[in-house]
Each structure stands twice: as C-alpha cells, then as structure tokens.
Amino acid sequence: MGRILFSIHIRIVTVEDPSIIVSGSRLLFLIVTMVMYLSVGRDVMSWRDRIAERLFGSLIERRVQNAVKVIDDKWWSQIGGAAGPHDKNWGELQEDLSDSLEAWRMNPLARRIVGLTTDYVVGDGITVTSGFSAVQEWIDEFWDHPMNHIDQRLYAWCDELTRSGELFIVVSVNPGSGMSYLRNIPASAIDRIDTDPDDLEREIQYHELVDGTLEGRWWPSWLTAGVGAGQFVLHYTINRPVGALRGEGDLVPILPWLRRYREWLEDRVRVNRLRNSFLWQVKLTNVTPGDLDRKQQQYKHAPSPGSIVVSDENEEWLALSAQLQSSDAESDGKALRLMVAAGAGIPLHFLSEGESATRATAAEMGGPTFRHYKHRQLAFSEILMDLVVVAAESAGIGVVGGLKLSCVLPDLTRADNLQLAQALNEITGAIEKMLSLELIDQEMAKVLVTKFAGGEEFNV
Question: Is the dihedral of CA 19, 22, 28, 33 positive or negative?
Fold first, then answer.
C-alpha cells in the first residue's frame, strides 16, 4: 500500500482585507480535514500529534529548547555562584583551569612560557620597602617569617597567576602577636564569589569546594572581615574583562594550538618511524611446482643485518619502503609554533628557535615582550604591596599619611644598564641646575632621578 506525503508550508502575513483572512482560515480548515481523512482508522492522539508536528513542529521545538535553556541557565547560575555578566560558567572555567594545569605539567612549550614570565617578572626577587625604619623592620619580620618565606613564594605565586589568572590567598592572623600567615587556595577550588548587589567589584565572600563535604566552606573577604578578623581571603586577578569577577590565565588562548602542535609532532614521529621501516620483496622467475612454498619457508624470518644471502639470476630482492611526501612539514610546524608564540606574546627565539631571527631583529622583536613583562611586574608589585598593607593593618601598624611603600623590581634586560648610566649622568647636571634656580623641588628631583635611573616607585 503506497503512502502519500504532503509537505505544507504556511506563511502568515498581516493584511487589511478580511476576505483574505477568511480564505486563509478556510484553507487551514481544508488542510486539517485532509489530514484527518488520511488518518482514518487511527487513534485520535496520533492524528493530532501529526497535525501539530507537521504545522508547528519547529516552533514547538524551538520554544521547548528556549524554556529548557532558561531553566538550565538558572540552575547553572545557582551552582556556579554570583558570576559577573562576562564571566564563564563554572563548567567552562573549571575546564580551562584543569587544561592549563595539565598543559603546564605535560607540554614543554607551556611549561617554558609560564617559566619565562616568572623569570622576567620576579627575576632575582622583588622586595617591598618603606620610608619609615620601624615599618621596614616589621616588613622584614613579616617577609622572612618561617611561616611565610615570601621570597620563596614569589615564584609559585607568579606561576599560579600566569596559569590560572588569579590568586586566592588565605590570611590567618595570630591573635597574640598580630603576625599574618599566608596560604593559598587553588583557583579551581573556588566555585562561587558573592558580591555586593550594588557593586560587582565589592567581593563579600568566597565558597571553597572541600573534598568529602557537600557544603564546602565559606571564606570572608578582607572588605567584610576587616581589622580583628582571624581569617579572611584576598583575591587578585589578571586578564579580567570588565564585567567579570574571575581572571583568565595566559595559557587559555593558546591551549588549542598547543594541543594541535603536540598532535602534529606526534604524527611526525610516527611518519619518521615508518620512513625507516621497510620490507623485503623476493621475486622468483622460472619457478617449478613447490619452489614458492619452499622459498616461503626458507625466508620465513627476515635476514638479520650484516648477513649474506646468496642467490642466482632467478631470485631478485627488493627493499620496499613507504613513499612519504612531507617536504612542507617544516612550514606547517613553524606556523603552529607562531600561533603559540603570538598568543603568549613572545617571539620564536624566546622558545630556543634562534635561527628564526638575527641579532638586530631579535632586539627589535623583544620590545613588545618586555613591555608585557613590565606591565605584569607592575601588577605583581601592586599585589605584594597590598598584602603588606593588609598584614600591617591586621597587626595594628599604621602611619599617618600611609606606609610610604615602594617596590624594588629586577631589571628586565641587563644590556640597558650602560644606557641608563649614561642617561643618568647627563640628566644629573640638568637637575642640579633646575634645583638651584628653584624650578623644581626635592621631591620632583627624586622622581626624575628615579625615572632616568630606570627604577619604579610606588607609594601607598
């Protein structure tokens, strides 16, 4: 029994002529009647379902999907926390954090990119100093305390900031001495950040996922805990877009390209292994019955290297190998490495590819990279000084007008020292002359000398 299928397309338009509307209604009535006639002998629900599916199936499906999405987003927002409008949902954020950590552990390029940032940003070390001797003594005690050892933590903090894009530092205050002790919570363990409803940047508390419990643990922020609190959390971020609470690691944009380069490299290793593999083909002529079977048994195992095979003109040996055309493989690999290097903000010669540039071009290409590292140095210095300020306030140490903190940063390049010395020598005479003419004061002279000496000063 044949089956006739009808494909009906209905276009709804707005018209002013009532007769057209009536005729449209009659057309719909005829269509429904036709479908009912073709469905004689079937139950009522089946033909109703088929009419709805034929006429309004796509509309129903679209509205159901939108309703499910609204409900799904609602519950995701409850599980994922009070994220900003430009934050990723918790599932995507967790995936980025775990992929970045895995890449750092397993991928040499990812490990080197993170290490380069720490090598240039932290270098030989960063120190926080104060213009007041009493405050400086307390900073040294806080910095070198056996429970802190901040000099050793700087490198791990910078690595974590590069990988995860944020730091969650737990500050525990000793109620007796007022000394603060610092510990870290992995960014992947913080699934929710509650903020002031009227101020997205005013963070109130943080929720930590704890193994073995469904409730987890809430940590107050410094803004809500204040002076006198026993424990609280400080949150610092980089690469945070406006309207977001969470930062983003430097590896996130290049993770797909790191993965593609690894897969390409693994394929190249397999290809090179096949290129060195071959098999022997023995061609026999003028064979008699049984010769082929006898030769197969004789050469059941391939001859070992260095052995001698004696044969006559009726036996010919041929070595067969894979014919792999891979002349353009080098340019493909370089294109992938360029994507990785561009995403990381470094030239290729920073990844030990010295043949990609001459000395002159390498010097020019390093400029943007050093500016990037300088910007990261400034951000990292602000984090360290904020830590010192918070710890000082928790210990009850305060000075009218501020602690007058500054950071001593390592040089990004040693080659600039000679140029800085020459510039300082030339500017010193000019500054002395301006001071004698009272064109500038001592504070401005200090700022100018610091600038031309290549130093940075941050006052708090």
Answer: negative
Tell me the two tokens of residue 217: 């643990």
User: What gap in Å lies between CA 121 and CA 376, rounded to an integer?
Assistant: 7
Distance CA 221, CA 205 (A): 5
Pairing of strands 278-284, 127-130: unpaired
**CA distances for 266 relative to 99, 134, 260, angstroms:** 19, 59, 10
Alpha-carbon distance of 370 to 362, in angstroms, equals 12
Q: How far is CA 265 from CA 111, 152, 337, in A?
A: 17, 36, 11
d(CA 273, CA 269): 6
CA nearest 410: which of 376, 365, 385, 443? 376
Angle between helices 44-80 and 18-38 (to 10 degrees): 110
Quick: pLDDT tens for 192-247. 999 998 999 999 999 999 988 888 999 999 999 888 888 999 999 999 999 999 99
Per-residue pLDDT band for 2 (boundaries 50, 70, 90) equals very low
Distances (CA, A) of 256 to 19, 95, 110, 266, 336: 60, 13, 12, 15, 10
CA distance 411 to 126: 11
- pTM, entire model: 0.69
Coil, helix or strand for 437?
Answer: coil
Nearest Cα to 185, choosing from 114, 113, 236?
236
Residue closest to 376 by CA, chosen among 126, 103, 190, 94: 126
